[in-house]
Amino acid sequence: MKEAFLEKKLEERKNEGALRKLSLRKEMMDFCSNDYLGLAGISRNNGYYQSQQLLLEGLSHGSTGSRLLSGNSVMAENIESMIASFHDAPAALLFNSGYDANTGLLSVLGKKGDYILYDKLSHASIRDGIRLGYATAWPFEHNSIESLISKLKNARQAHLNDAGEGEIFVVTESVFSMDGDIAPLVEMVEVCDRYGAHLVVDEAHALGIIGERGEGCCQSFDVHAKCMARIYTYGKAAGAHGAAIVGSTILKEYLLNFARSFIYTTALPPVSLIGIQYAYERFPQMGKERMHLHKLISIFRDAVLVHEKLDSNTAIQGVIVPGNYTVRLLAEKIQDAGFDVRPVMYPSVPKGKERLRIVLHAYNTPQELEMLIGHLQ
Ligand SMILES: Cc1ncc(COP(=O)(O)O)c(C=O)c1O
User: For this structure, is 122 an active site residue?
Assistant: First the structure.
């Protein structure tokens, strides 16, 4: 049997109750997608979605090449200027996805002799990017300033021992994708300053949701000018696809020269670009949706459940149900009652921290949420 080695690995996954499978979404109340504000229009065929569809007509589905060859366009450049201006930064560079942005950036940011310190709960795209590069990488405890300081001290000491002039980078998410909690960015900026480290912040789950205009955590906490790079992804609240890295013009020039996931790939097509542009036009007008979301968050936070809840003040709410089988069984039971709730299992999260990842949206009603809570009590 030629592929027995693959089957063996799949069998192991199956025995752990962690075999991944593709499934099609059934019509259910959406407590699972990252379409926080409803902009993707999958969940509700609202007026905005219809108008966007109209405008999509006639736009090309192909960009014909890499941005560095035939794939560049006035539209892409204009959208990058708009992104930079919205995020109060000198420059922005588009990538095809958040995964590409993180791997592209983190694989080339540090060289041998440099240190990358990253939050231990960082998204796979952050960890994969770091693994592709040559810097020494150390995780620090999740959202722990003490742990970060201790790693910064060690990295500084290592540089002194090597008599080297290496750089230190600190990487975090602003809103964590699995736990929904927020990084202590103000303190992080302060310690990065103290130890001469560069801060990189992934704002994937903050864009559109946090801040008066949905500008994300960095601007809303007024630390954006102190960040070397910020990553905004468009597959979540923006309801589109793609990502951008925001920072200095030098960073942009560096990335378009060295980031392989930018150079060696076909650029985003106009249909994708227009989706990003719409999201940025809509974000400032969606204060009512953000307020509604916050109302849902406090309803959920106040609910008494039989299971442990993660301490999150964002649209991502985790309910810990240890064990792959147990969490999957519970998710299936709730799905049968009409709620699209998904389990997140080991190895995506540590053993014992398996959970239901409940995502709240601007289009969920308080009544729907109360019904869902009823299934968790
Ligand atoms: C924190 C974080 N960064 C990056 C990504 C990747 O973004 P994309 O889906 O656009 O590839 C995700 C997606 O799950 C994420 O949660």
Answer: no
